[in-house]
Please model this.
Amino acid sequence: MPDAGATANSDQPINITFENRGDRLIGLGFVNACLKIITLGLYSFWGKTEVRRRLWSFTRINGEPLEYTGTGKELFLGFVIVFFAVLLPVFLGGAAVIALFGKQAAGLYQLAAYLLFFMLLGNAMYRAQRYRMSRTRWRGIHGSLVGNPQRYGWTYFWTLAAPFLGAALVAGIAAAATAPTVGGVLVMLALMAGLWVLPWRANTLQGMITNDMRFGDSSLTYSGSARPLYRRYLFAWGGSAFLLLMAATASILVLIHSGLAKSAIDLGQLPDFSKMPKDAPYLRSLALAIFALAGIWILTLILAAVITAWYRANQMNHFAKHTSFQEARFRLDATGRSLMWLAISNWLIAALGLIGGLVLGFVVLQYTGAIPDLPEGGAPAKDPSVLPVLLMAMPVILMTGVASTFAQFRSTRYFMSRLKLDGPVDLDNVLQGQNQGIRRGEGLAQVFDIDAF
Model:
């Protein structure tokens, strides 16, 4: 007969580790990219599944790996169903609106479509997480997400839409009684003020999704408050607001200097692009303006990632600190400096992949002689061959595929190697949870391109 201390002895410490095998992902990224090219993109669902299986297997709990049991077929079916049930009707509806009511009604229809997609965004994220958890197993026991996707999606929508719409409404009323310049400043200030809702919103959504999580029949719980997040958020908010203001000012100056702003005001629209090649000075001005605007906003995004890194690290640590499983509590050792380097280095990897693909594409074009010769007068051929485009696109897809797969590995390694669970867990009493009967993958999230690798 077991003694009275047998139950207590079943409590075990939990050790989470991550196997550093990025070399196995580089080759996989290359193979996936090749198969994606051969199948015209169809293999991407199966490629994504294989990447997940590798990353899950690298994650070990007490030395035993996680198992991902999802399939490419499930992801493909989920995408197809959402495409025909959501995307295709929206596109056909837009065409019908234009045919019946003219292009004037197209703007209102597009606004309604964007609003619909935003309302579905939270629902898509929740369903994607639910699918991944249902396909994650450890020691044969699977995870689950037992809440309501519609409830989470609605909360995701109104917690952002209501504050911003309210602030914009107040600013709009105030702007109507002032000069246009003052009104524009008031609207911008109102939108910036609306950003103060983000820490509370993130904490609310984190609590909802965490309290719905299960491992077997045991639940996770979240008890965090948004109040501790605001101290770090003050710096992130102020720095980001300053960056956006500087970027907007620089963009306006570029448009004015290039003459694009004046042309748009005078003509009520941008000039006829079909006539631009006949106006070489204007075409050069347009190209320089486009490159300048792209540079301004790329630099802004990079600097914003740097400025907000400390807040994001603090938020992630806060979420982990207030998440518990049985009597054990999670802990994440993220730092602003390391998170900043992770974001910047992953961007550099993506940029190098793109540049490498373009360089390799030009080499292939030169070697194969597929670059078309310009006829007399320098005008391009009327019916250019698609071969140069294909020869350029294939190296780009290959290199960016390898780069993105390696970046996914680095991000997963960063978080899983820093995640800890402090305290014992009674693993012997964790039983298998109820099967939710999920048969398809995260179709909505794939359509919106927001699902995790």
About this structure: The CA atoms of residues 243 and 249 lie 10 Å apart. The radius of gyration is 26 Å. The longest strand covers residues 419-426. The longest helix spans residues 280-321.
